[in-house]
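For reproducibility, we list the full input for the pyridoxal-5'-phosphate complex.
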Amino acid sequence: MPDMSRSVKMRSWYLFSDLSKILSMAAQPISSEQMRCGIEEAKSRIAENWHEVRASVADAARAAGRDADSVRIVGVAKYVDATITQWLVDAGCVELGENRPQSLIEKSGVLDGPIRWHQIGHLQRNKVRRLLSAEPVIHSVDSQRLLDEIHCEASQQARSVDVLIEVNVSDEDAKTGLPIEQAEAVLRQLVESRDSQSGEPGARIIGLMAMAGWGTTPDQAQRQFAKLRGLRDQLQTAVGIPLPELSMGMSGDYPAAIAEGATLVRIGSSLFSGVLP
Ligand SMILES: *Cc1c(COP(=O)(O)O)cnc(C)c1O
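The corresponding predicted structure, in tokenized form, follows.
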């Protein structure tokens, strides 16, 4: 007989984790005065969290029969201000993700270190021009118009910009990302009409990104990640370009994503546990 109490408990846990996700996305980044602990403790918590997450990512890679360094960790710093983000960089995390382009631009102007920036949240076309000066990888390309804008702006600024196409693999209407059926057309248009995959200025598509839907169990999330990998394999063959990067997996589901081939995991809350209020 199935254990009903466990499944009810699980379901309410997912509901709770969704609520906290929604709240944390809406909230302003916290400053050091708002932390749950003092400054020195926060610095060491963040460093410990970073080492734990790295070890756990490496374990998940090995369990999947993959090289530990085939998975890069993008530290998602949207929860905290620039000062606290710097402590994460000092701990060794130099690939940083931001949800809002404005935060990425601001932090890129003040943080210190060999940082590679990643724009992971929704991007409006009117923010592209300023964003490109931080030379980010853009994970969240979810329309032909946005891709066109990035390509055009990058060409004008004589930059080569790595982008990922965000795909909706969760069957939810409200989710961000291109419908699966449109991904091929978007790829083809860039590849065929512009010949921009060669390192010339412009947008260069390096892979696909997805988020598991709200309220998915780890098993459901893993099936969605498998779907993204399958789509990637299919598009590589159909369009004839390499798509080596798969950006999938967050704090709650990265082992499943790594099992399905993630090369970039976007991890935020686990890195700040014990620090966020
Ligand atoms: C916030 C966010 C993450 C990180 O989520 P955590 O659960 O805090 O690890 C990853 N990807 C995107 C697009 C996000 O907005």
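The first strand starts at residue 72 and ends at 76. Confidence is low (pLDDT under 50) at residues 1-9. Both points were considered when choosing residues for closer inspection.
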